[in-house]
Amino acid sequence: MTEYEYRVLTFDRHTSKAQARQAVREHAEYGRWELARTVIYEGGVRRMWLRRRIMRIERTA
Fold it and tell me: What pLDDT was estimated at residue 23?
């Protein structure tokens, strides 16, 4: 079974779409995160859930 860890990014209504996209892009490029879910709330707050796979490493020696 695949296990994931999650990180939530929250942007206020004054943050542009381009700035939010750049933050997600940096997490994806350097931290191997992928976008799992995006919600825009009534007040304009944007919340994005990022996830990445947890890799379990077994000892070989």
Answer: 95
